[in-house]
């Protein structure tokens, strides 16, 4: 069985999502389907079809989470130290062309979220940064051509 690296926070979020789907979303959608079914002819009942579609999504996500969670390998980032980029690191980089500074956290594929600055271990940027240290200049593949970035900080928290 393939193991997926993940932070403890990432696992907790997945477990909370699974709990929420099973205890709140699933019962609510069952009630919505029953209510829509009570309105009569199901072939022309948009509420019923929307509720069934939502149920399909919820059941699919529950199945996905139930297959991911047992395969998670929690990495305790608090025990990692040093200035080399590894799983769980918060890496601050500066684009050498634009001088724009950005900080990313390298996490597992199921907890990556660009809105929070978390990037997947398997992303091109994370792959380029892995094993490098503060002060290193790194070529990162990008859709518009390779970009050069400099690592200015590495932290584990």
TrEMBL record:
Domain of life from the UniProt record: Bacteria
The family this protein is said to belong to: Belongs to the GreA/GreB family.
Protein's GO biological process: DNA-templated transcription elongation; regulation of DNA-templated transcription elongation
The protein's name in its UniProt record: Transcription elongation factor GreA
Organism listed in the record: Roseococcus suduntuyensis
Any one GO MF annotation of this record: RNA polymerase binding
All residue ranges annotated as the Transcription elongation factor GreA/GreB C-terminal domain in the record: 83-156
PROSITE patterns assigned to the protein according to its UniProt record, in alphabetical order: GREAB_1 (PS00829)
Protein's job: Necessary for efficient RNA polymerase transcription elongation past template-encoded arresting sites. The arresting sites in DNA have the property of trapping a certain fraction of elongating RNA polymerases that pass through, resulting in locked ternary complexes. Cleavage of the nascent transcript by cleavage factors such as GreA or GreB allows the resumption of elongation from the new 3'terminus. GreA releases sequences of 2 to 3 nucleotides.
């Amino acid at each position: 069985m393939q193991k997926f690296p993940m932070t403890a926070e990432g696992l907790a979020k997945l477990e909370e999502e699974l709990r929420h789907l099973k205890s709140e979303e699933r019962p609510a959608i069952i009630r919505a389907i029953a209510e829509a079914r009570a309105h009569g002819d199901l072939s022309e009942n948009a509420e019923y079809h929307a509720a069934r579609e939502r149920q399909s999504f919820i059941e699919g996500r529950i199945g996905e989470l139930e297959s991911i969670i047992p395969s998670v390998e929690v990495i305790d980032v608090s025990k990692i130290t040093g200035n080399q980029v590894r799983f769980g690191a918060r890496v601050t980089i500066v684009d050498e062309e634009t001088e724009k500074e950005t900080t990313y956290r390298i996490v597992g594929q199921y907890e990556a979220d660009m809105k929070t600055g978390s990037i997947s271990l398997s992303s091109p940027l994370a792959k380029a940064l892995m094993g490098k240290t503060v002060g290193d200049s790194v070529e990162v593949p990008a859709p518009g051509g390779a970009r050069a970035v400099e690592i200015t900080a590495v932290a584990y928290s």
